[in-house]
Amino acid sequence: MKFLLIYLAIISAISCIVTIYDKRCAIRGKWRVKEFTLLLLSLLGGSVFMYLTMLVIRHKTRKAKFMIGIPVIIILQIIIFIAVRTALYGA
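Structure (tokenized):
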């Protein structure tokens, strides 16, 4: 469990940093982070903090792919976590 928490902290921090970096690039008209990369980071566990970061810095908030997609990923991650935890430790 300790490993999982450390992993989630690291992937969440990376997700926030990459999201902020992409916003800065958008403002400055520079090369952007691919949407695939942002969604992959979300799938890998950074979904909650990426979503919160996007809301706070108002980045990608007009794109349904992110404003619907990331909450769906969060829900799926919660379901998977509960299923795995139940399978390993019981109800």
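The chain has a mean pLDDT of 96. The two ends are 17 Å apart (CA to CA).
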